Amino acid sequence: MLKALQLEPEKCTGCLQCEMACSYENEGLFNPSKSRIKVFTFHDEGRFAPYTCSQCAEAWCMHACPVEAIVVNEATGAKEVIEDVCVGCKVCTIACPFGTVNYNADSGKVIKCDLCGGEPACAEACPTAAITYVDAQHTGLERMRAHAAQTIPQG
Amino acid sequence: MAWQRRLLRVNLTAGTCVEEPLNMEWAMKYIGQRGLATKYLCEEIDPKVDALSPDNKLIMATGPLTGTMAATGGRYSVITKSPLTGAVACSNSGGFIGAELKQAGWDMIIFEGRAAEPVYLYLENDQAELCPAGDIWGKSIWEADEYLHTKYQDPLIRIACVGRAAEQGCLYSAVVNDLHRAAGRSGVGTVMASKHLKAVVVRGTKGVGNVRDPKAFFQATAAGKKTLAENAVTGQGLPAMGTQVLMNVINEVGAMPTRNMRDVQFEGAHRISAEAMLEPRESDGKPNLVTNAACFGCTIACGRISTIDPQHYTIQNKPEYMHASGGLEYEAAWALGCDTGVDDLDALTYANFVCNEDGMDPISFGSTVAAAMELFDLGAITTEHTGGIEFRFGSAEALTKAAELVATGEGFGRDLALGSKRLCEKYGHPDLSMTVKGQEFPAYDPRGIQGMGLAYATSNRGACHLRGYTVSSEIMGVPVKTDPLSTEGKPELVKAFQDATAAVDSTGLCVFTTFGWTLEDIAPQVDAACEGGWTSESMLEAGERIWNLERQFNLDAGLSKADDTLPKRLLKDAAKTGPAKGMVNRLDEMLPLYYAARGWTPEGAPTDETRQRLGL
User: Fold this and answer.
1) A77 vs chain B: nearest CA distance in angstroms?
2) Could you tell me which of A38, A124, B298, B347 has the fewest CB atoms within 10 Å of its CB?
3) Alpha carbon of B473 to those of B35, B453, B478: distances in Å?
């Protein structure tokens, strides 16, 4: 079953456990500035929102890459950056409409979510289930269930 | 290793920023944060120094677990000598700047001297620079925060700042970070402003690594998170209700200090409680509470994010307050509400916003307003002093106006900025000040919770609930239930809480974890991250060492046994209602036993044997 990250901002408390898990998994450091998933705080509204790559089927980043450094992992569906091939030209960061591919100045390569090979560390770390890893064809299931519940006659 | 092993020394007089290696020999004895920074302070300043002179120092310190994935691992503390108490001050804050400092590659910053003109520190990884603060001196914390974010065009910088209250010398000024988290108590912000240091701006992209044993660390921190999630307080009560979960509980046990501690129960408590914050209001159908919010790395998320009723008198034509921001925690709700007799939830939220915006400790501010209201009641203060304000118990208008006046240092605000002790002395009624060592009480009346009386009297930073929270045992039964109305066993209980808390405060973790964790849960996390072979026993011993170090500082500063006491009201005037009706705090039964349990002389000084045992 193809799975996808499901993000539910209304459950997020802004603790950044996901950013630490992501950076440790990928960089070996607790370092939110190197996280592939980011939590945004909308202070005046009192809202938090985690955001990361949604692994587009027709990925702009992949098509834009001039050296074919971004490839599909057939097992997970993730679009992965092959570090040895990436030349750090950043064209993919321009191509991505969502801003989820970014340049890492320390390595001279781009970084993006690769679903940790099928066991995303962010989802594992999230204490409120704002980030879960679910059936890619049913990321709307819980929301559907919530609305369906409203259609049940009371009493 | 989890420590970054380096500190930044900023000499404001000379305008220099110099890197130094962290003293790892001390780290092995004092862990980090509260303990380690107190050791630096004791080694570097004369305890008798004037707290507001350039000779005092101010230390911002993280712990070894700050900036890691350990649950709540985002804390930092501000350590200095307090201008409010003359004792050692250590105020702890969450939010995000502590972790950012660690991510930038530093364990602590020591500020010394005084800048000729206002400055702020900009710290981006290894680059440290003192910058002119002329454009933000005289501005509120919220204004300065916006200015700095705009100037650097960087949404990810973290800022700690002092407000106009601190600039004007308010003795209970806080250092506020991330807009509404605060190193709140004992006037640490007053010291920062006295150094002409307006703000500290941090951006860290280096990360925290070199955990001693990563596998053990992930195991220990995951086990800790599971325990917190399954605990009724940290897993359910605090996320849903915040610390305000206590409002109705403490009121019912008759330990709610009310109207400057004349009473022990507040009839309006239910109107300002956690439950009240969830009630939709008439004007816009929304409740006061917008959401709960986490500090860095916190899996509890007890923070309150609130809005004020758009129809409320306090914010008419003030769009700057018509958005969500840090809402009422229990201590703020109590001090601004019960202690002043005000039960208007929106007035309290507004006063709380003002405390955040201009950096006043809401406990000391609310208690000082309460003292002023009692002085007004007696006729010792009149409308001539207050600029026409009727300072009556229960007056929301008096409370919110007082907040504005202290924030800007105007009119009667100058008297209120002195704190309760100096205010009551000035107006001829020193006995009406509800303080220990000059610091105002928090939200637990020690007539109804006997152990807290001893904890307050012996707290190294003056009246404080966070130095030995025996409420946990006496009311909530954590880790074991004791009778709140009995003094039996309390000296040992207070000592155990004080020592354990001193250790927790030195790790980078939040003391609220101890509703679910003991040192048995914390030591494996510290040990997996750090060298030193940490066990619950060695951490408890480090905590006792830290406590005695703080005590020695205070004794050397000129404090004595005579300062280990409570206001007469709590020792002589019996509680009027509730389960503790007819009772006073029986401090005299507990204090000598406490000194003995601590290995101190009958005069309250650590004996040579105790000092030797602890390696002091």
Assistant:
1) 28
2) A124
3) 24, 14, 5
